[in-house]
Amino acid sequence: MAKILLVEDHEEIWDFLSRRLKRRGYEVILAHDGEAGVRQARSGQPDVILLDMNLPVLDGWSVARTLKSGTDTRAIPIIALTAHAMSGDRDKAIQAGCDDYHPKPVDFSKLLSQISAALGETAQAG
């Protein structure tokens, strides 16, 4: 099954999401700040990254730009997870390098659809 890197600093959210994703058969790697997220993405080579945009140490926008500029990580789909649901926030996340956007609170069934869509391109290529 696919490997998902969840970069999230709020325990309730990463606990909820990681447990539900594991129940669906996904392997979940956790990082609790942006810098750790970049390291985990490079070492773990996940199939999809769920990236909170408000992170300590290095924010999500910087993480997305860093990963999309790296030859070893640029092809990994990134789904932004953010409480920023104002007009223009989706565009800001996409411009930073995220491939998709999911506003909080998390709608788990919609997020699963977005993960499937992100994996679909990878699965078809393989």
TrEMBL record:
Residues 3-119 form the Response regulatory domain. Keywords: DNA-binding, Phosphoprotein, Transcription, Transcription regulation, Two-component regulatory system. The keyword Phosphoprotein applies. The modification 4-aspartylphosphate is found at residue 52. PROSITE patterns: RESPONSE_REGULATORY (PS50110). InterPro entries: CheY-like_superfamily (IPR011006), Sig_transdc_resp-reg_receiver (IPR001789). The keyword Transcription applies. Pfam families: Response_reg. GO terms for biological process: phosphorelay signal transduction system. GO terms for molecular function: DNA binding. This is Response regulator receiver domain-containing protein.
